[in-house]
Write a structure and sequence with these properties.
- This protein is an alpha+beta fold.
- It is 24% helix and 20% strand.
- It is built from five helices and six strands, in the order αβαβαββαββα.
- A four-stranded mixed sheet has the order 1-2-4-3, with helices on one face. A two-stranded antiparallel sheet has the order 5-6.
- The longest helix is centred in the N-terminal third of the chain and has 20 residues.
- 21% of the residues are buried.
Length: 192
Amino acid sequence: ITPNVTTIIGDITTDKCRSRWSPDHHNNQVDVVLHDGAPNVGAEYGKDAYEQNELALMALKTAVSHLKQNGTFVTKVYRSRDYASYLWVLQQLFDHVQAVKPAASRPQSAEIFIVATCFKAPRKIDPKLLDPKHVFETVEGETTGGSGNNQAVTIFHKNWDKKTRKRGGYDHEHLDMTMRHVVSVREFCSVG
């Protein structure tokens, strides 16, 4: 046990976990919140990445209600089409936001850590800033950071992961949002 360090282990999406932050505990203000949580993965990369980033947003929501001014928030995210939106949210709340790929993380893994320092501690935060339905809203596959467009396609829409053709730039028919092209070993060996 480290002096002056309190560790809370639990499911950040539950009231039970959030209630462990008692009002009388350090006046409910902390210097650092470190989030290394992850959802159950394995369904499909786009869905896994969305769930990881949604979890990171929920951790941020808890963190901003407990961080001291100039506090630090560290979280794991997956690079995906939601990554830019998540960074934008952090930049509204912190003076410095930096992506870090620790040596312990496999190079081929899409996971990275975001270190956000110098929490601005605004008196009021628009709830939409911490709402995944708003933050991760997409229009025709492009990240908008929550444009409010009525024609948005979100994770809750049946076509949320529908690929759209792009003209110019990267070959989006063969590369996913993380600029990877995943094929079986058989397909890889038969290319020629």
